[in-house]
Every structure is written in structure tokens, then in C-alpha cells.
Amino acid sequence: MAKPKILIIEDDPAVRHGMTAFLRANEMDVDESDTCQKATELFRGGGYDVVVADYSLPDGTSLDLLPQFKRLSEDTPFIILTAHGSIDLAVRAIKEGAEQFLTKPVESKTLLVLVKRLLQQQRLRKRQEVASREQPGPMNPFQGVSASIRRLEEQARLMIEWDSPVLILGETGSGKGVLARWIHAQGPRREETFVNLNCAGLTRELLESELFGHERGAFTGAVAAKPGLLEVGHRGIVFLDEIGDMDPAIQPKLLKALEEKTFRRLGDVRDRQVDIRLIASTNLDLEEMVRAKKFRDDLYYRVSTLTLRIPPLRERAEDIPVLAMTILRSVCSRMGRPEVQFSARALEALKEYAWPGNIRELANVLERAMILQKGECLEAADLGLGGRRPSHVATEAGLVTLKEMERLHIEKVLQRSGGNVTDAAQILGLARRTLYDRLKALGIATGKD
Ligand SMILES: Nc1ncnc2c1ncn2[C@@H]1O[C@H](COP(=O)(O)OP(=O)(O)OP(=O)(O)O)[C@@H](O)[C@H]1O
Description:
This protein has 449 residues and is of the alpha/beta class. The protein has 18 helices and 18 strands. The chain has helices spanning 13-25, 36-44, 62-72, 87-96, 108-134, 147-159, 176-186, 204-212, 229-232, 251-259, 286-291, 297-303, 320-335, 344-352, 358-372, 402-416, 421-428, 432-442; strands at 5-9, 29-33, 50-54, 56-57, 60-61, 78-82, 100-103, 166-169, 194-198, 213-214, 226-227, 237-241, 262-263, 272-273, 277-282, 306-309, 341-342, 377-378. The strands form six sheets. It has a five-stranded parallel sheet, with helices on both faces. The longest helix is centred in the first third of the chain and has 27 residues, at 108-134. The protein is globular. The relative contact order is 0.07. Adenosine-5'-triphosphate binds next to helix 7, helix 13, helix 15 and helix 16. Keywords: ATP-binding, Nucleotide-binding, Phosphoprotein, Transcription, Transcription regulation. Residues 142-371 form the Sigma-54 factor interaction domain.
């Protein structure tokens, strides 16, 4: 990954060299200028992530540069340094669009922290922009014509207004998260936060501190206090994915938060008030887990007040064409390609296949097909379903071969890591090379690393 690129504009050589050397030693790419003119030339070349400029320069001030630079690149943060900490100047600088104002002498470490924070904010902003462009609104979880999906929509609409918890049941990849987001977007809490947490694979300590937060010193490594998701989601919706995997020791605390609307951060002595709507989901049989005493019955009764069950794709094959076309359209637009159609045979193949990984698997198959084929029509052979098991062979719901399970699991982890193979390999406990070999053997395309 390219290093962040910083432009330092400072006419005092000692100060300039000091800042440059320190930022370079901290993995940043630094260009220097001692005048406004040279800085303008450099900045026009583009690609700067942060500008650090002394106020007073031999041929002008950084307030002369600021509006020009903002016109050229509005998103590049601008830090102004000055020897005279004047409130007036600071107010003008901020009004003109400067992100920060620092009084000299500036400690290198302070500058580094500030630059890093601005870089992080910039990254976050970009990610949010991308996300909002990719998803103009929440996805429609009820695409299709089947009676079961219409029934699900009717039931879900009845549940929107209330504060009672909702339990969403469904196989892996069937769209439980999409439905939870839809409920949030339609309901009275839509302006408030939606936070989600996957309870699977987290140690008890981590899950507890993620949910309830902790005070400083609550455990080794708790160097600062941190609010939990219940606090962050106050007034909004907390979506707990895979609640069946929640450690039994945490379950009574969650029940207390739901029933009494209070909870306690780890290491804290006082209760805090919280108002959340809980949406939980699982692909496990929670009732069976209650019978087997693996899940608390009181929590089960509380979270399952309102239950929605998403049918697996293979039970609503008539919905597959609509879903596939919607997903294909969004893949094309993400890739900047003109719209692609399915051949009649390809649609048949999609309907015949069992889809043990449900909509997630469908989306992955279509994305891979689009990466590998460049024409205007997707044929059955382009889908690569040949080696996979058609629906009439999958005799019992959810029963798949070990190889299919491996493929599904890898696809799921890749999805969670945003397609990043290095991160996925780490989650799977594999060497990156080994994961690449498995991807090749299973015919999984990633599109990026
Ligand atoms: N109605 C839909 N339209 C388009 N894409 C969808 C739809 N439902 C789900 N998807 C896509 O399928 C994938 C899986 O969806 P989601 O994460 O909601 O499933 P899930 O049931 O919560 O999965 P898991 O059991 O792994 O938690 C996501 O990439 C999502 O974008």
C-alpha cells in the first residue's frame, strides 16, 4: 500500500527538516517547500493526503494558499502552524477551511498524532461515501414472487413500529442481516444508530466488553474506558448476529439489559440506563438448544417475542430469477460494466441448484461469473455450477458435502473480510499461500486482495 503523502511548507530549514525527518521515520512520504509558489506547483501535481503549512512565508501566508488548495482538492486536510497563537488568526483559518491550527514550537509527536488522526478521518469519510454510493438505501429483503416471501413481508411490516425484540431465523446467507437493516430503516428508530455484533467466534471476555463496554483497568489491557455497543446503540437498534453462540455467562446480563433497561460496564459499580431495540438472528435451532440447556430459556422467551423465519432459497426457487437479476445489476454497476443478461438456460441452472449458502452464495457465484466472462449474456456454463450439487441431490435441508461446506465457509469469511485474502487467511488460520491454493482448487474468485 502506498504511504500517505504529506506536503510541508515551512521556510525555516531547521523546523522543516525536523518535521520531514520525523514523518518520514514514521512511514510517510514527505515533500517540502519553503515558499508559496513552490508549494502551489507541488500541490497542483496532486496526490497529497495532508498539508502542513507555516502561516508566514517569504512570498505570502498560508491563508493565501488555503482557498486555492481547497478549490483543487477539498478533501485534503490543511494544518496551519504559527509562531503567534492568535485567536483571530485561528478563527480565520478555520473559517477558510483549515482542519487544524497549531502554535509553534510544534512537538513532532503532536504533529504525527494529528496527521494520523486526519488521515484516519479521511479514510472513514471515503469509506462512508463509497458505502452510501453503493447502497442508496437498505436492500429489499422481500424480492421475489413466492407466497413465503410475501408472507414474510406481511409479518415483518407488522413488527416495524414496536420496541419488542425480534428474532430472525434462517440458514446461513439467507439475508438475516439485510432484513434487520430493513426493519431499522423502516421503523421509528431509523434516525438513530444501527449497531451490529456477530457473537460467533468471540471469546467470552471480548464479547462481554464489546457489548457492555469497560472501565479503565477493568482487565489487563483495558488502558482506557470504552463504551460498549449497547451504549453506542442507545435509542437505536442493536443487531446481534448468531446469538446462539453467545456464551451462557453473558446471557443473563443481556436479559437484564432487555428487561430492566440497565446494564453495567465491566469494572464499573453503577448501572447505566439504556433504551435499545434488539434484533437477534441465528441459523441454529434455538429451541433445541434451550431443551439441551445450551441457551437460557428466559432469554430465549424474551428475544423470540416476535420471530421471523426467512425461507432458504431452495424452498422458493421461483424467486431466484428476480433476485439474480437484481444482484447482477448491482454487480455490473459496481464494476462499471453495461448491463448483462442471463440466457434462458442459465436461469434454469440457477433455479435447479440447491444454494446451501443461499443469497450470499448466489451473489458470490454471480460476481465470479462477471469477473471471468466479458460478454453481454451469461450462459449456464459461465456460472460454474457444474461441480456443485443441484437441489434434487440435497435431500435434507442444509446437508451438503464437506467440500461444499469448505467452499461456503471460505466464501463467508472472504465476504466478512471485504474480499481481502490476507485478512481472510488470518481468520481461517491458514497461510496466505495455502488459502490461494484452496481458492484455486474450489474455483473461488476474489476480485481483489
Ligand atoms: N434481498 C437481497 N437482495 C440482494 N442481496 C441480498 C439480499 N439478501 C441478502 N443479500 C446478500 O447476501 C449476503 C448475505 O446476506 P446477510 O449477511 O444478510 O445474510 P445472513 O443470513 O445474515 O448471513 P449469516 O448467516 O452468515 O449471518 C450479503 O452479501 C447480502 O448483500
